[in-house]
């Protein structure tokens, strides 16, 4: 049992498969403890997810060193989004448990260049792969300096 007491970590969840290199994604940033990539069904243009390289389902499972690392990566991504999309407002969101609407059971922080009043629907519309690749490249280039 994990600390949230009702779900077991699934080694074959979609983000675990990304970390194992088994499925493709549009990478924005990676370090030894985290990975950031484009959300495939964005709630706004430039929607990025940051995940820890730890088998954590949700916040209750996250080890302090990974929590810190995820937030440091989230800061980098947010600063890059501000520059690329020329906007200050970036939503940071994170869902814990299916009752909250969580659909992928590997902890992840959403960073969405949007306003809470304009946010698109959650995980509904698939984006164009070419556009995602282009946005990932732009964000990665800003982070790399
Ligand atoms: P949540 O509902 O908070 O668990 O969010 C899961 C997020 O993962 C949603 O925003 C989905 O659009 C996104 N997602 C699902 N599959 C993929 C994928 N293969 N690549 C990138 N993002 C994904």
From TrEMBL:
It comes from the Bacteria. Residues 14-121 form the HIT domain. InterPro entries: Histidine_triad_HIT, HIT-like, HIT-like_sf. One of its GO terms (molecular function) is catalytic activity. The active site is at residue 108. A motif (Histidine triad motif) lies at residues 106-110. GO terms for biological process: nucleotide metabolic process. Transmembrane segments: none annotated. PANTHER family: ADENOSINE 5'-MONOPHOSPHORAMIDASE HNT1 (PTHR46648:SF1), HIT FAMILY PROTEIN 1 (PTHR46648). This is HIT domain-containing protein. It comes from Psychrobacter halodurans.
């Amino acid at each position: 049992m994990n600390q949230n007491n009702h779900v077991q970590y699934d080694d074959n969840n979609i983000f675990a498969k990304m970390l194992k290199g088994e499925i493709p994604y549009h990478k924005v940033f990676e370090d030894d403890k985290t990975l950031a990539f484009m959300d495939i069904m964005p709630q706004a243009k430039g929607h990025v997810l940051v995940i820890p390289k730890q088998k954590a389902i949700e916040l209750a499972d996250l080890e302090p060193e990974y929590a810190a690392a995820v937030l440091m990566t989230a800061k980098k991504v947010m600063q890059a989004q501000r520059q690329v999309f020329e906007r200050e407002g970036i939503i940071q969101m994170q869902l814990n448990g299916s009752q909250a609407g969580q659909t992928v059971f590997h902890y992840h922080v959403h960073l969405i260049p949007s306003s809470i009043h304009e946010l698109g629907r959650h995980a509904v519309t698939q984006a164009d792969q070419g556009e995602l690749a282009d946005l990932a490249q732009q964000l990665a280039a800003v982070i790399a300096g």
